[in-house]
Design brief:
alpha+beta; Jelly Rolls; IPNS-like_sf
Amino acid sequence: MAGNGLPALGRVKLSDLVPLEGLPSDSYKLSVSTLSQSLAQYSAAIIQLSTSDGALLRSSLESARLYFQHKPSYPAADVIHSDDSQEWCKTSGYHADPQQWQETYDFRPGLTPSEPTTEIEFPPAGLADIFSLLGRAARDILDAISFYLNLRSSPFTEILDNVPLRNRETSSSVLSVCCHSRPSFQGAQHHGLTTQEDGHLGMFSDHEHQVDRSLVTIVKSDRPGLHVRDFHGHWVLVDGDLGPQEAIVYPGLALYQATAGYISPALHRTDIGNQQGSIYGRCSLSFKLMPKSMTNLNCSEMRAAGHGVEAQFQLPVPVDDFMQRSTDQLLNRSNFPTFNFPTVQDGSMKPMMRRRKSNSRSKPLPPSKRLRLEAQRVLKERVQDIADKKGIKLRFCTLKDCESHIQSLDSPCTNIRMEIGWPPGVPFVHPHDLPNKAKIGFLETYEPGWSATHDMELSLIDPGQPSQHTSNCNYHSPNYPCFSASVSLFKQ
């Protein structure tokens, strides 16, 4: 694919991506190929809507300008944005992020009232229609990607919302109406200045590297400013020459997980400094097609299609757990500070990884201490989360007592160990107090693939005897996550 790549961001008509019965038409195959190549090269593509749909988008952007223009200059304390990942599927209404000069109105069917609750607060107009329009478009794009990967028709239906929603259901997908750098919005404290490749100054939000956790995101803005990082590592302005009926589409982390890393999530940022002469700021509509909260992301469809599924994607991931993990954990990149991109060699894209350069000024932690700290982190993030969801209060035993408990069928901790899936043969004590070999069993149970992603000198744990764990590890095997592409795209 890389050998005959696209010279610029791919443009496809949405009408050509609508699946029909029977054999695929030439226009469908060409559009799917263009979309897929553009996502592989630029992590984004341009979709062209119909004339009537383009008019609806433009009128909604006009409504958004008026909505934000009538908001107060300083946001109230109760609408300041807080990044609470546990409430990812409950965002609704207006909130502001002064640090990024960003205001957002989230429309989520089933949670956001369709009618104004007071005579004063009127939401932007046409949100229900835009939600329906972009929702259909996102599903058609997702099906086109599935066709390219040789998956069966509509393979992601089980993890998507019902169409239409059932009674008392809340949409997982969300339509966000955003406004950057409104001149009358005076809550910002500072910006981050960066220099673009052409030498001009650009002003970007403090959180410069952003990645959505959606399956697919569609964005339409009223002025340029969206930059996406391509597979060479260069920032590309993707909405610089959009027509009135065109929008940007890019994949998110959920699609990366569901396709076993075959589709790279788009790394993006927004230029908030190029707004001279604008009395409204930069307004945009962003639709995120999200998986349902009570489902799992798994790669069974990829496996059924004959694609290789690496170790880090073998186990299903609950969506709620997925939304709470850090980006580094989701990409299995705990040792990498930023995204790496594959390089083109001999006409093919070969994954390349670079380890973070060790800081010569700081002395690395000894293996035993790193093992202890990792076990404590897993207890806090994984085990406690399982216990909280099941309503279990963890009451650890003492190491000496629990060595006899694990041999008994009737002991104080038997039920708790079974409920939270505590590893067999490991005493039910705080991981800080576990012997080192037991810590390894604890980590391998709650962090699949842990052993392959940590270069620890495990032989030091039991001096004089080779560790069984170490002898079973082949650190040069391509099946381990540490040798997978950090951002693999479309594997052939």
